[in-house]
Write a structure and sequence with these properties.
By secondary structure, the protein is mainly alpha-helical. Among the domains are: 5-47; 57-149, Type II secretion system (T2SS), domain F (Receptor-associated Protein, Up-down Bundle), CATH 1.20.81.30; 250-357, Receptor-associated Protein (Up-down Bundle). 75% of the residues lie in helices and 6% in strands. The protein is built from 16 helices and three strands. The protein has a three-stranded antiparallel sheet with strand order 2-1-3. A hairpin with a 5-residue loop joins strand 1 (5-12) and strand 2. The longest helix is centred in the middle third of the chain and has 55 residues, at 138-192. The radius of gyration is 30 Å and the shape is extended. The chain starts with a strand and ends with a helix. 27% of the residues are buried. The model has no long low-confidence stretch (mean pLDDT 81). Residues 64-186, 268-388 form the Type II secretion system protein GspF domain. InterPro entries: GspF/PilC, T2SS_GspF/T4SS_PilC_CS, T2SS_GspF_dom, T2SS_GspF_sf. This is Protein transport protein HofC. The chain crosses the membrane at residues 162-185, 216-234, 369-389.
Length: 399
């Protein structure tokens, strides 16, 4: 990012009015010069404590969506950005939008102004805005981009929700089991020692597990922490991320869900770029840049190379071995009929709907399954604890 420090300022306007705000600049001298260029005399200039702000995708979507609305209402791009900068609640976004508006006033293109902020605006944003500038349909490109971003956010949230639920339930189950094993069972163990009868096998097994956890629990916890730390370190490596993605796609339940989400994203971006008039190869490059997983990036890179060498698109997709037969069939039909953009849009819609349905089915399937698993685990512990008490009468009779 060219401007990596946020500066808060107070200044006097040519009319003598006091104004304040924030701007992005690399150093104090640059920030001071920027204020002077706006005919503002700085009174105070200090660096904000916000050194690495979080650029939420939700804010990015809202900015593009609101900008599309303002452009369709007849406002100019510069005026729309000024309005958004004045109304945005986040200080760093306010300064960013004002900086882009200043670049436009200086004669820079909108796409070039966005390109200066790669940490905020992905390459897809730059490509779509450049297409809108060339075709004169910037408002339509903003609207389509905002709709695509909204769909992807909803789909991602749906998938995360479906996967988050079992993790929470299993974590609670493990916490309950550990509490019962470490806190409750030791109390019962003292009572069981007064019995003059052998303990049931189930109770002996549970008590053995409790003794093992009490003796080696700290060591197991340390081992778990070291393992998690190692995985967090290794996951940054490209080969590890590729291997884990391949393993994920082979999972019977999670695999189709993860595949559907990625295919939905790929075909949505390809459809969006095709509708905007971007060439397929350039749209494929934009799609590749929007994907964070190296596995899918490598697959799209291989498809790009095959298409560049003259291979049909459907054949390149087929060689990648990650696309469904429906994808191959519709893309082949679109190439033959000249309606590739329509087929890509249909594929994007199909995978969106299918992934939403799979996420709902996963949640409805896991809820009763997790209840059964949790009930069996806790029920086994309760039975193991109280089973010797049922034989207390026999023990007293024998005494």
């Amino acid at each position: 990012m060219a401007s990596n420090h946020l500066w808060r300022w107070r200044a006097l306007s040519p009319q003598g009015e006091r104004q304040q705000g924030a701007l992005w600049a690399s150093n104090r001298e640059t920030a001071w010069a920027a204020l002077l260029d706006k005919d503002l005399f700085p009174l105070e200039l200090k660096q904000s404590g916000l050194y690495s702000p979080r650029w939420h995708s939700q804010h990015r979507y809202e900015v593009i969506h609101q900008l599309a609305t303002l452009l369709q209402a007849g406002l100019t791009l510069s005026t729309g950005l000024d309005l958004l900068a004045q109304q945005h609640p986040a200080r760093h976004w306010k300064a960013l939008l004002q900086s882009i508006a200043d670049d436009l006033s200086a004669g820079s293109a909108f796409s070039e102004a966005l390109k200066k902020w790669p940490n905020v605006f992905p390459p897809l944003y730059v490509s779509m805005m450049r297409t809108g500038e060339l075709t004169g349909k910037l408002d339509e490109c903003c609207r389509q981009l905002a709709q695509q971003q909204k769909t992807q956010q909803q789909l991602g949230a749906k998938v995360k929700k479906a996967l988050r639920y079992p993790v929470i339930i299993l974590t609670l189950a493990v916490a309950v089991v550990l509490a019962m094993v470490t806190l409750v069972l030791p109390e019962f163990a003292g009572i069981y020692r007064t019995f003059n009868t052998p303990l049931p096998a189930l109770t002996q097994a549970v008590m053995g597990m409790a003794s093992f956890l009490q003796e080696w629990g700290v060591a197991m916890l340390l081992f778990l922490l070291v393992t998690v730390s190692g995985l967090l370190t290794v996951r940054r490596h490209r080969r590890w991320r590729v291997a884990t993605q391949r393993l994920l796609l082979r999972c019977p339940i999670i695999g189709p869900l993860a595949r559907g989400q990625k295919l939905s994203q790929i075909f949505t971006v390809l459809s969006l770029t095709q509708q905007a008039g971007i060439a397929f190869l350039q749209g494929l490059e934009s799609t590749q840049e929007t994907l964070e997983c190296p596995f899918w990036q490598e697959k799209l890179q291989a498809i790009h190379q095959r298409v560049t060498q003259g291979e049909p698109i459907w054949s390149a997709l087929n060689d990648a071995q990650i696309f469904t037969p429906l994808c191959i069939q519709l893309v082949r039909t679109g190439e033959a009929s000249g309606a590739l953009d329509t087929m890509l849009r249909n594929l994007a819609q199909h995978h969106n709907e299918q992934t939403f349905q799979q996420a709902d089915n996963l949640a409805s399937l896991l809820e009763p399954l997790l209840l059964i698993v949790t009930g069996v685990i806790i029920g086994t512990l309760v039975v193991a604890m109280y089973l010797p008490i049922f034989h207390l009468g026999d023990a007293m009779g024998a005494g």
